[in-house]
Specification:
The protein is an alpha/beta fold and about 375 residues long. The protein has helices spanning about 15-20, 50-60, 70-80, 85-90, 95-100, 115-125, 160-165, 235-245, 255-260, 270-285, 290, 300, 305-330, 350-370, and strands at about 20-25, 30, 35-40, 65-70, 140-145, 150-155, 175-180, 180-185, 205-210, 335-340.
Length: about 375
């Protein structure tokens, strides 16, 4: 583990020749594959888009020699580096909404709603005893030291532990206590960690940002509640039990946010609030005294809870931090995934988000390859 510095990484020469070269068909000549240093940002369930983005890079002949990531970026990047991404993809694409709920080992304690042990038991089983220093590429997982207020870079040690530290979303997943540190989501300080990839000296630096500008066209609609229990009896009983337990913590907000939706056309919390404000503006009387009064919103009527407000707060913070990071260290290629493509906790939408990642990376590479001489990041 290192603090804002490189502690131990593999040299490019350690990567096998099979990874760095390809043979031109029918010629017998080897052609060097362009190398990529890949940064994978945070954004909850939208991180599934990283899977599709990586697939396209590999299919287009790019050789990924370095990966840095935080939160879901650290998880997906770690799975790829360990050669387990297909296993991980097979698992997540088979999860329905009820399957996701059953994986939440709820604690409702003061520091987090979810222990994360059920989910990470699957992750640990996939990764085994893999250590970062034994990976065939440079890998960095970024976490945040909650007490020292600084980034922590994992570049050696058990891979599953590095990932677990990076995905501890404040207030949602319990922190990881390690070597006297309290470690939480790396996105608190650096939701798009580009700096760790610079030392790899790759041909191009590619960053996948999960906090892109809203795009209604890329919005993945909320599907009807789906799970293996189509009858609904087990689902209702299980959800009622959780509701009783949830009253000790976030009332019903945390579970309601993750649970079934009544309609496939539900607006996001942002859209609900925006529409309510627009309606109030249209209905506002012209009386000056009334115009100066403090406005109120019926939050219960909108169905906006504490969990939604906390999630919006985190995403607002991360969007601002991403812009600062991009201004300081612009990548050669920037791929934006719209932050309204899905809610950060829509972990049952893996197939749609993977496809979105493929589409956005394909479009970005098309434009990049046509404009190789242009300077600065090329965003879509």
């Amino acid at each position: 583990m290192a603090e804002n510095s490189v502690s131990k990484i593999l040299e490019s020469s350690d990567i096998s020749a099979a990874e760095s070269t390809t043979t031109s068909e029918g010629t017998g000549h080897e052609r060097k594959r362009p190398t990529v240093a890949l940064t994978l940002g945070s954004g909850g369930a939208r991180g599934y888009a990283h899977i599709g983005a990586i697939e396209v890079l590999a299919e287009r002949g790019y050789n990924i020699v370095a990966i840095s990531g935080c939160s879901m970026g650290a998880l997906v990047g770690g799975m790829y580096a360990a050669g387990k991404m297909q296993d991980y993809k097979d698992w997540v694409t088979g999860l329905g909404q009820f399957d996701v709920l059953k994986l939440l080992d709820l604690t409702f304690n003061a520091v987090g709603a979810i222990r994360g042990e059920k989910i990470f038991s699957v992750v640990r089983e996939m990764l085994g005893d893999t250590r970062i220093e034994n990976l065939p590429l440079h890998y960095t997982s970024v976490a945040t030291d909650l007490l020292a207020h600084k980034e922590i870079w994992f570049q050696e040690g058990p891979l599953d532990r590095a990932i677990r530290a990076s995905v501890a979303i404040p207030g949602v997943v319990t922190p990881l206590v390690l070597d006297g540190r309290v470690l939480i989501d790396g996105a608190v300080l650096n939701p798009l960690p580009i700096i760790p990839t610079i030392s790899s000296h790759a041909d191009i630096i590619v960053a996948v940002n999960l906090s892109g500008e809203d795009d209604r066209r890329q919005r993945i609609p909320d599907a009807a509640f789906a799970g293996h229990d189509s009858g609904g009896g087990e689902v209702d009983e299980w959800m009622d039990a959780l509701r009783d337990k949830a009253s000790r913590w976030f009332d019903w907000d945390a579970i309601r946010a993750l649970g079934p939706k009544k309609t496939s056309a539900d607006d996001t919390p942002e859209e609900k609030i925006s529409k309510e404000i627009q309606k109030k503006e249209q209905d506002k009387p012209a009386d000056k005294k009334l115009l100066e009064e403090h406005e109120t919103i019926d939050w219960d009527k909108l169905g906006i809870g504490k969990f939604d407000v906390m999630n919006l707060t985190i995403e607002t913070m991360q969007s601002a931090l991403v812009q600062y990071k991009l201004a300081g260290y612009p990548p050669d290629l920037l791929v934006n995934i719209p932050k309204n493509a899905s809610r950060s906790y829509d972990y049952h939408k893996a197939p749609e988000l993977i496809q979105l990642g493929r589409e956005r990376m394909s479009a970005a590479l098309d434009r990049f390859e046509d404009s190789r001489s242009s300077s600065g990041p090329l965003a879509i």
